[in-house]
Amino acid sequence: MKNEAINRFIFEAVLIDPINDIILKLKNKEFRDCDIKWLNGKLYKFTAVAAETLGVKFPEIQLISNDGVLNDYTTTRFIEAFTTLLNYFKSF
């Protein structure tokens, strides 16, 4: 029981809380165009962790274009992707 609580705390601190923070900041429009590459990196890393939990090797791909602007369309795509990951990690 004690190990389970510790594991859950780590899981929340490393995955759930950071993803929640990113989603909140995306919704509040706190990111800029120059943050697209950083957001893509975070999205890739969290997706790779999710894939690993499923026993799947996640390939080297670009999830969302690093070029361009962080407009409503791109922001919505990031929010949808991070929300999907958040829901997946919360299901553990």
Structural description of this entry:
This protein is mainly alpha-helical and 92 residues long. 68% of the residues lie in helices and 0% in strands. The chain has 3 helices and no strands. It has helices spanning 2-27, 36-53, 72-90. Helix 1 runs antiparallel to helix 3 and helix 2 packs parallel to helix 3. The longest helix has 26 residues, at 2-27.
Strand percent estimate: under 5%
Indicate the low-confidence ranges by residue numbers. Answer: none
Using the CA coordinates, give the radius of gyration. 14 Å
Structural class from helices and strands?
mainly alpha
- The ordered H/E elements are HHH
User: What characterizes the major β-sheet?
Assistant: none
Work out the number of β strands: 0
Core attributes:
92 residues; globular; 0% strand; mainly alpha
Summarize the topology.
Layout: H1 2-27, H2 36-53, H3 72-90
Describe, in short, the structure shown:
The chain is mostly helical. 68% of the residues lie in helices and 0% in strands.
